[in-house]
């Protein structure tokens, strides 16, 4: 009867393909990408370990004449010996340092990881040498007159006559032998070192004719290992004793130049929203829960601000109303929002904002756009939560690199009586530098606005931008009858009563009938209310529609990390707001635009989409990255994903009855048996399992809750069930593939032959033959270490050979039941299974979840936040620049950079520009410290205009509304 087991070795190559494929996809995030070094190094060594442990059991290496058992045994033996030797050396060296016998420079302790890596490289070098040269003790004739014929030159000259490829192949092998015997020959025999003869390992005999009973030649492997150890010790001692003196001396000028060339900004990466190990994310969730469940409706920092404000109306108004800009001429101001995520993207936008002028193409001609006199920031200043670390590293650091604060300003200073004007400036209206006003976003409110108050309301400088602001909301009187109202919506999505009172009184008393108002909020309620089918911001609506009436020409917001502009269309009644603008591209991850493409109504008026960045088409294409790049962008999700999948199939290990899958005459028969077993496993999980069923139930509830609430309950349940079904099916298939691989190897006697210590037992049987020890060095070491020497190697080999441990324990369970296994044995078995199942499952769980996000965002238009935060896109960054013209209209330019640089270097122009004492940074021609390593990718060179329009102060002047 034909069975799959009896067929030719194609199945083994298929196993190789599957095994190598899974390991490649598991390691793909670490190939050609700089990620956290400790995790990357761990993953590489982890992959190498379990991949080699699996490959050496498969048969095709043996059929090709390659037996990995000796190399693995030798590697592990040398590895543990090297660790012990170097640890003892470092202990002795530190003891000598402690008593003062070595230089005090040597006091720094070595890193354990460095020792382990050095031992690994050393062991690999010895194994490579053994693979090519062996451990032969070549008995050479030492007659001086006969040694010349073994030289490489004479060998090459004698053999060079024949040029056929066969002869060349033979010559290469003979050349290798000559290299091994001449260049890497043993250092001598025991007779050459009589005092050390008892401390050597000897080489195996390789001679022609009669040979003595035992070799006296020192093992070349042993001599190579001793050489490497000696080099390490010598290098370590000399380096620690002399310190920097060993380096090539450089002049002070060259040293400074080299330092500048190597300088790089210490930017943080984009926030890993799908990391299961980030303390910042756990703190974010905790702060959000506390803010929403405890403080919302009970305590509001805005009420406290109002209570702390002085009772005098004029004084109160001075703390919230800033009219020092009202008489400025040729006034420019900028708007951005949602910064403080990735350092590269935040700095790219900050650098553009800091430039004295930006040369851009507008209507087919170059135009200089001067830096804004005022920078307005629309909230969400740092991610993922407000803290001293995130504000300093993600917000202040990029802005200070872009435009430095005054030289006399101290970062830890507190502004007690704002505005704290620079020396020589008597009044705020006399200050000619850029200023900044900010409103908080929802992320700034996660800690009850505490960090925002400390770093914004009680500090005076954001980089080189002066901050006179005292409260979390403000009103600005601009030239030519323009006003800016900065509203604080907190976590309620609306302004409080005190804010409404202030802005409504201001609108009645100060804002003229023909004036124009720009309202800034963090959330774009016109888009979010349409998306969620909700109605928020009733106080804001009352302020705009009933108090300001036709005077609100523009509403600006962030929160959504893209750029979109809608303008009112012709309608029967007057539009309360002429333009609706969202620009949250200040540095945070990108949000989609195509999800909001059908928005058209707000406050009873019709609106049309005038601009979207990125475009709707590009936005939908970007979403495809969830399938292709989810795991590469979110490699820390491995921890959560791998554990979830393992819990789903935990109760199914081991599968003892798989022989029926391997029988059959056709591929369809094998596939039918395989799928039938998958179904049986599913039924077992649903009917008999406890751990796996609990995992499925918890995952199902979580998946249903994860679906946005804008959908009906029925659709949410259906989507959640389909989502979990895909994960469960994938986990069951992976479980069965792993078990089938073990089953095939067991049936071919490649696993579970002689217990847990198969590799060690094989090595002990051949050790004396390949590495003779006539002086009994191993026995003496075993006695001196009380048996630890062979025991450590034995259990290290057993721990390395995870497939053997898994297969032997699996057989024991299948024969005697799970009850026969001790608790420690069960832990070891499931841990060994998890080591391989984690590699198989992590790429698949990311693929399934990424596909779910792609389908939801492009087909169902849900999960716009989750589906794009996963991509962590730093590109498509922008801000909006406004110019109040002499005719009282505002010309608007939205400036954008498609691709944000990742590699920065010190700007030579910035470094060469004279730094005069007392001169503010905004007066410099080159204010920003870093420029892109590639000049074409620098934001200043790559910036472009993605939207250009005019806001008319007089109603109906443009004929739109």
TrEMBL record:
The keyword Transmembrane applies. Gene3D superfamilies: 3.60.21.10. It comes from the Eukaryota. The keyword Phosphoprotein does not apply. Coiled coil: none annotated. Keywords: Membrane, Transmembrane, Transmembrane helix. This is Calcineurin-like phosphoesterase domain-containing protein.
